[in-house]
Amino acid sequence: MPRTLLFLACVILSTVAANLLLKAGVAADPTGGFITKLLQPHVLLGLALFGAGAMLYLLVLARLPLNVAQSALALQYVGVMLGSVVVLGEPMPPARLLGAALITSGVILVGLSATG
User: Fold this and answer.
1) Which of 8, 77, 82, 98 is deepest in the core (most CB within 10 A)?
2) What is the mean pLDDT of residues 2-10?
3) Measuring CA to CA, how many Å separate 83 from each of 13, 35, 37?
4) pLDDT greater than 80 at residue 114
């Protein structure tokens, strides 16, 4: 199980980083067209991280039931929310913070039910 948790953490971290890189990449050239944005280095790296995350997710799926694996991936929403505050300087109003806490609570409940 520790290896599965490591794979799961890597999937979450790669998708969080990918989202932050995509946002940074499209913001780097706000007037550019789709192809210009697509070819931004941050966007390309973000897409590569999504691909790496998908490959790691296959390892997770081989070890966990889909309903547990997918529920745990909800933590990427929380990670993106926190990362957008820290990395991008976006605001986090109290309602969003409460939402992140509820998501985290839900993931914990699903995880506890999966272990016994």
Assistant:
1) 8
2) 93
3) 10, 26, 21
4) no
Cα gap 49→62, rounded to integer Å: 20
Q: How far apart, in whole angstroms, are the C-alpha atoms of residue 33 and residue 46?
A: 18
d(CA 98, CA 37): 33
pTM of the predicted model over 0.70: yes
Closest CA to 12 of 107, 109, 115: 107
* Residues 101/103/104/107 CA torsion (nearest 10 deg): 160
Task: Count other Cβ atoms within 10 Å, centred on residue 2.
Answer: 6
Residue 22 has pLDDT above 90, yes or no: yes
User: For residue 102, how many other CB atoms are within 10 A of its CB?
Assistant: 11
State how far the alpha carbon of 70 is from the alpha carbons of 25, 67, 74, 84, 108, in Å.
27, 5, 7, 22, 13
Mean pLDDT of the region 9-36: 94
